[in-house]
Amino acid sequence: MLEIRGIDKTYEAQPLLQSISFLVGVGETICLLGPSGSGKSTLLRMIAGLESHDAGQILWDGIDLASTPPHLRDFGLVFQDYALFPHLDVFDNVAFGLKMKNWKSDEIKTRLAEVLELVNLRGFEHRKVAELSGGEQQRVALARASAPHPRLLMFDEPLGALDRALREDLLNELRGILHRTKIPAIYVTHDQDEAFTIADRVLLLHDGQIVREGTPAEVWSKPNSVWVAQFLGLGNVIEGKIVGGGWSIETKSGVFSVKCGHQHQVGEKVHLLARPLEASNEANQIRGRVVDVVFQQDRFKVMLDDRLYFYLKDEPKSGQMLEIKVKLECLQ
C-alpha cells in the first residue's frame, strides 16, 4: 500500500505542494484532479522517484522510498506523449522493461502475449509504433507499463492528446483493465469527466492542498467549498448575507431559508450553491426570465436575466418567465 505523508514542495521560492497526505489501497484507483499548475504532475514524479520533495515521506507498506531509485520502485508510469521508442516495433517497446530486468526470452514472449491481449493489440507485435494511431500508441504505452507486474500504475494526463470519442473509449477500457488486474493506480487529470469515470476516489488539488476528497458521488453531491463547486461547474454560486437564525439568507435572487450545519453570525457573508430539483418539498425557488438556451446532449443550459443558469430537461422559450425549485447548499 502506498502512503503519502505530509509532502511539501517549493518551486521558484513559492510553495507548490503543502502537507499532502493520502493513501492508495489495494486495487484502488485514485484520481488527482485539479487545474494546470496545481502540482499534480509534480507529485506523480516525486512518487515515481523522478523528482525530490522538500519534506514528508513516500512509503510503500510502511517503508520510506527516499533512498530507493526509480527503477527499483516497481512503479509503472504512462505519459500523455506515450514516450515510446519510435525506432522499435510494438514487441520491443513492450519488452523493454522486461529485458532490463533480465527476463528470459520465453518468459517475455508469454508475458507479452498476455498484456497485448489485455490491451486489444494481439497481432500488432511487429508493427512499428510510428505507424500506429494515437489510441493504439497509448495502448502500447499501457502494455509496456503493465508488463513487469508493477506494484503501482501512474497515469499523467494519458488521454489528453486524443479526440473526445477515442478518449471515452480508452477510458472505459482502462477502467476495466484496472479492475481486472487489481493493480492500484494514481490517475492525474484536469478533466472532471475522466476523473469521475476512472476513479474509486477523487482528490481535488487547489493552491497546493487537497481541498476535497471522496468518491465521485460524494464529491458531486457535497462539494463543501466555493472553489470545488465552481471548478466542477456544479451550479450557481450565489453570495448572500445571514439576516436571521435558521438560517435566513438574503441574496440578489431573493431571501432563502437554508439548512446549514456551519456556525454563522447574523450579518455574516456566505455562499450558496443552487441546483435545480425536478421534484422537491423545499420551498426555495428562483424566478427569472429566459435570455438564452443552449442544447447540451441530453439537457438544456438555460440562462436567466440575473445571469444565473440552470440545466433543465425540457427546453423553455426565450423570454419565458420561469420559477425553478432549487436545492441550496451553504458552502465554506
Can you describe what's shown?
The strands form 3 sheets. The protein has an 8-stranded antiparallel beta sheet. Strands 6-7-8-3-9-10 form a 6-stranded mixed beta sheet, with helices on both faces. Strands 2-1-4-5 form a 4-stranded antiparallel beta sheet, covered by helices on one side. The model has no long low-confidence stretch (mean pLDDT 91). It contains 8 helices and 18 strands. Strand 4 (55-60) and strand 5 form a beta hairpin. The chain has helices spanning 40-48, 90-100, 105-118, 134-146, 164-181, 192-198, 216-221, 226-232; strands at 2-11, 14-24, 29-33, 55-60, 63-64, 75-79, 152-156, 185-189, 201-206, 209-214, 236-244, 248-251, 254-257, 269-276, 285-296, 299-304, 309-312, 321-331. The radius of gyration is 24 Å and the shape is elongated. Helices cover 26% and strands 36% of the residues. By secondary structure, it is of the alpha+beta class. It has 2 domains: 2-223, P-loop containing nucleotide triphosphate hydrolases (Rossmann fold), CATH 3.40.50.300; 235-331, no CATH class.
Q: Find the CATH topology of the largest domain.
A: Rossmann fold
Write down the CATH class of the largest domain: Alpha Beta
Enumerate how many helices there are, as a single number: 8
Q: Based on Cα principal axes, name the global outline.
A: elongated
CATH-assigned homologous superfamily of the largest domain: P-loop containing nucleotide triphosphate hydrolases
Uncertain ranges:
none
Approximate helicity band: 25-40%
